[in-house]
């Protein structure tokens, strides 16, 4: 043991993966308000009323020297190396900080979105709202990216008596290869999902959406348009990019405060030969694992990463596994049907074991 006190804030993919590895050797305090791990890549299942697969944080941390303080950070004092929390307790001092607060659904700048739209983080509320509806209606899912597609297909399959629409400012699944996008659109059509492309949402109200191409009526609106990093890094004074992600070096240390390691969606990481890494579980988990090894003395090498594939759930019986080059550009090869679904399921299950 080094005797250092290491604090990890955030219990997502990156934060838990870092804490469990550091906690084999050093004393760690994990700060997060949750008692259960939020398996974000399965939130679409929770929204549709499927059984949730969320282990307790205590179970993930079992056997490690990690104390979980169930609270939110209200202030990060970088100069004093202290954290102020909302639980009324004394500030926590640290020798090394692992910042892993990740990202959240963006869209707060769109009028009415905060008041009238359900984000993926509010999956449980959305599930209850659909269950309590007096009659089936229309659900408009805003966002043609991975989260929006998974939500739209899952909701359409689970609630065939509801009309599901997916509304996107760009092409739905437009970043995939032609084969991949064609499969996504075919599944959406088979499930009866109406696709509205090139329609940028300008406001949200209780009775639907307004876009730059006209009004779209809806009884429920689900917001999955984009993600943004938690603002605490910028507010505290860490060096950040224009979009609010912390600037880091090759060892994922803050360029302005090297005693702070930043992992997951909060970090602006660029890997030689690959380029900037996108937000998501696929990059967050390896970053957390790497910093855990680094701070426990099991590696001194810079962080390295290569992409292999992207995958989407498309309801219970379908999926898309899109193979990509190391820089995340599309290959032509895809897996669909039962094989795609099995591959996706195995990857999602492996994430939980990867936390430890």
From TrEMBL:
GO terms for biological process: aerobic electron transport chain. The keyword Iron-sulfur does not apply. Keywords: FAD, Flavoprotein, Oxidoreductase. InterPro entries: FAD/NAD-bd_sf (IPR036188), FAD/NAD-binding_dom (IPR023753), NADH-Q_oxidoreductase (IPR051169). GO terms for molecular function: NAD(P)H dehydrogenase (quinone) activity. Pfam families: Pyr_redox_2 (PF07992). The keyword rRNA processing does not apply. It comes from the Bacteria. Residues 5-267 form the FAD/NAD(P)-binding domain. Its cofactor is FAD. Belongs to the NADH dehydrogenase family. This is FAD-dependent oxidoreductase.
């Amino acid at each position: 043991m080094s005797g250092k006190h290491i604090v990890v804030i955030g219990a997502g993919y990156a934060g838990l993966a870092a804490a469990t590895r550091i906690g084999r050797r050093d004393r760690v305090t994990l700060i997060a308000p949750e008692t259960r791990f939020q398996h974000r890549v399965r939130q679409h299942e929770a929204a549709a009323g499927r059984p949730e697969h969320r282990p307790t944080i205590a179970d993930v941390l079992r056997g490690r020297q990690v104390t979980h303080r169930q609270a939110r950070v209200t202030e990060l004092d970088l100069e004093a190396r202290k954290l102020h929390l909302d639980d009324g307790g004394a500030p926590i001092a640290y020798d090394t900080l692992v910042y892993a607060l990740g990202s959240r659904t963006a869209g707060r700048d769109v009028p009415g979105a905060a008041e009238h739209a359900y984000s993926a983080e509010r999956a449980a509320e959305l599930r209850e709202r659909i269950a309590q509806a007096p009659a089936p209606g229309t659900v408009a899912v805003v966002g043609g990216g991975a989260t929006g597609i998974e939500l739209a297909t899952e909701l359409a399959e689970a609630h065939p008596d509801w009309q599901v629409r997916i509304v996107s400012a760009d092409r739905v699944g437009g970043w995939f290869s032609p084969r991949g996008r064609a499969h996504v659109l075919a599944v959406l059509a088979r499930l009866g999902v109406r696709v509205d492309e090139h329609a940028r949402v300008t406001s949200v109200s209780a009775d639907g959406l307004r876009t730059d191409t006209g009004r779209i009526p809806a009884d429920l609106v689900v917001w999955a348009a984009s993600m943004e990093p938690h603002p605490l890094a910028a507010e505290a004074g860490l060096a950040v990019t224009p979009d609010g992600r912390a600037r880091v070096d090759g060892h994922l240390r803050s360029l302005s405060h090297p005693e702070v390691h930043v992992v997951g969606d909060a970090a602006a990481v660029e890997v030689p030969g690959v380029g900037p890494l996108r937000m998501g579980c696929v990059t967050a988990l390896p970053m957390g694992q790497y910093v855990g090894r680094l701070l426990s003395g099991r590696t001194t090498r810079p962080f390295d990463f290569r992409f292999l594939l992207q995958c989407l759930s498309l309801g219970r019986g379908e999926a898309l596994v899109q193979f990509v080059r190391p820089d995340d550009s599309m290959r032509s090869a895809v897996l669909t049907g039962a094989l795609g679904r099995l591959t996706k399921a195995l990857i999602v299950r492996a994430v939980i074991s990867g936390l430890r």
